[in-house]
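DM from R.C. (forwarded with permission)

"hey, sorry to bug you on a friday — could you get me a structure for this? deadline for the figure draft is monday and I only need the backbone to look sensible"
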Amino acid sequence: MDQFLAFTVVGLSTAAIYAVIGSGLVLTHTTAGVFNFAHGAAGMLAAFAYWQLAVGWGWPVPLALAAVLLVLAPAFGLLVERVLMRPVQALGEAERLVMTVALLTGCIALARWVWDPNTARPLTPFFADRPALRLGPAAVTWHQAVTTAVAVAVAAGLWFLLHRTRAGTEMRACVDDRALAGLTGADPLRAGRIAWVLGIQLAAIGGILIAPTVALDAQQLSLLIVSAYTAAVFGRLRSLPLTFLGAVVVGLLEAYLAGYLPQNDYLPGLRLAAPALLLLLALLAFPHRRLRGRDRRLVPVPLPGRRGTLLFGGSVLVLALVLVTVLSEDAIVPYGTIFALGVVALSYVPLAGFAGQVSLCQLSIAGIGAVVWGHLGAHGELWALPAAVLVAAAVGALVAVPALRLSGIYLALGTTAFAVILDRWIFTLPAFDVLGVRIALFDQGSVIVTGPDLFGLHLTSPAQLLLLAAGCLALASLGVAALRRGRFGRRLIALRDSEAAYATLGGRLLGAKVAVFALSAGIAGLGGALYGMQLQTVTADQFNLVAGLPIFLIAVIAGLGSVGAGLFTGIAFVVPTQLLGELGTWAQDLSALLIALAGMGLAHSPSGIITRLRTEWAPLARDRLLLGATGAVLAGCWLLAALDAVNGRLLLAVALAAATALRIRAAARQQGPAETPLEWWGVRRPWRPEDGEVLSRATAAG
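My reply, with the result:
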C-alpha cells in the first residue's frame, strides 16, 4: 500500500505538469483557433533559458524565473503571434499546422545549436534542501507540492480569465467568428496576442517544472508534449476541467506502469509509448464535431502533362549521372541519399497533396521498409524489395482505419502518436515469434543493409546504388503523375475538396483512404529500403518523428501537389546539410534551423515554390535557342567538372548564374516591347494613321 501511495504521489505531481502544459494548448486552440505543435518546444526553450540564467550565469532563482516567465516567454509569444501566425490566420487549418510544425523543428534546432547536446545540464528541484512533507505513509517533496499548487492556481486563474473578464469573453468570441466579434467591439488582434502570451507562459511554467526530473535534452523535452496532447484531447480541446482530468489519467498511468510493469525485454518501451497509445485511443473514443477539423482553403493541384513528366524523369536520371561522374566515391554516399529521401518525400504527394490527408509518420513507415529489406534481402534477393513495399503498404492501410474518423489537425495528431509508438516501443523490441514466424526489426541495435542482385549484377558500390535510387525515383514520379491524370487521382482530389460531398456522390471513404494510405506507405517503404542501401547500416533513431519533420516541411515548401516535390525535397534536405556540415557538426543544426525558417515562410507561397519556379522558368523552356544555349553551358560545366579541370563549386556557381541570366533573357524576349501609354503617342513612338480614331474614342469615353 505504501508503494502504491508513493507511485500515486509521483503520478499526481507529473499530472499537474501535464495539466499546466495542456491548459496552455487548450487556451491557444479555443481562443486563437490554432493547435500549437510547438507548445512543448516553447517549454523546452524556457527550461534551457532558465538553466542558463540560474545555473550557467548564477542568477538568483527568483530573478531567473521572473526573467523567463515575465520577459522571455511573453516576448516569444508576441513574436510567434505577430510574425508567424497572423499572416496565416486567413489561410486554412493545414497552413497553420505546418507553421507550428516548422516552429517545433526550428526550436529544437536552435536549442541544439546554442546548447551542446553532449553536455549534461542538471537542474536542482525547487526547495531540494528541505525535508519532504509526510502525507500518511507517503512522502511529498517540496518540488511536487509546488507543482501541484501551481497547477491549482493555473486552473483557477484561467477559469476566472475566460469567464469573468472582458478579455476572456473577447478571446472566446473571436475563435468562433473573428469578423462578427469585431463588429461587437471586440479586438481580435488583442485577443490573439493575449492567448499566445498566456499559452507560451504556461508552456514555460511546465517546462521549468518538469526539467529537474528528466534530462535537459531538446528532443526529449519537446516530445513530452505528447502527454499534454493526450490531456488536451481528453478535454476535446475546449474543456479545462476535462483537460485536467486527462492529465491525471496520463500521469497516474505513467507512474503505475513504471512501478508495476513486469520486467522483461519487451515491455520497457510500452511505458514510454503509453501516452501516445492513450492519445490514439482518446482520438478514437471521443467523436465530436471539432474532432473532424475545420474548413480549410485549398490550393489548386497542378495536372502534370505527359511530355513534362517524361522530361522530369529524364532530368532525374541525368542528375544522377552528373553526380556519379563528378563526385568522389566517399562523397557519393551522403549525396546519394538525395534520391532515396526523394522517394520518401514523394509519398506525401498522393496522400497529402491529392487526398488532403496529413501524415507525420511517413519516415517511420520508411523505417519499416528499411528493416524488412535488411532482413529479407540480406543476400541481395530482389524479391525482398517488393516485399518491403507490400509490408509498408500494409502498415499504411492499418493507419488508414482510424483515419476514417479523423481529419486535419486530428489526423496529424493520430499519425504523430503512431510515429511515437513506433519510435519508443515497436522499434525497440527484440526479435520475437508470431505463429512460428520470426519477426525482427532493429533488434535493439542496428541493421546491416546490402544492395540487391539486379540482372545477375550485385549492386554494392555507392555509385550503383545511387543510380538505382534515381531510377526508382524517376519511375515513382512517373507513376504518381499518371495517378494524378487518371480516374483515381480525380477521386482523390474530390475527396480532398469535400469528404461529405464525396460520400454523398457514392464514393467509398474507407476504400479511398485505405488505398491512398497504402499507396503512400508503399512508396515510403521503397524509399526507406533505398535509404538503407545507401547508408549500409541503419538504426531506429534515423527514422524517428523528429527526423521526419524537416522532410515533411521541405515537401510542403516545394508544394505537396507537385510531382517534383520528391526530387526538390531530396536536394534541399541533403545538399545544404552536406555543404554546411563541412564547417563543423554545429552547422547541421543550422541547416535544420534554415529549413524551419523556410517552412515559416509558407504564408508567402501557400501553393509551393515549385509552382513559382515553373512559372519563372517556363519562358526559357519555350525558347529553343536559349534553351539549347543553356544545355550547352551546363554540358560544358559538367565536362570540366568530370575532368577535374576547375573547382566544382566554382563551376556550380557559374552554371547557376548562366542559367539564371538566360532565363531572364528568355522572359524579356517573350514579353516584347512595353506598351506605350496613349498620351505619349507621337513622342515615344511614331504617329500612325489609325491612332486618330483610337484617340477620339478614348477622349469620348473619358
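R.C.: lifesaver. The first strand starts at residue 133 and ends at 135.
me: no worries. The CA atoms of residues 134 and 147 lie 16 Å apart.
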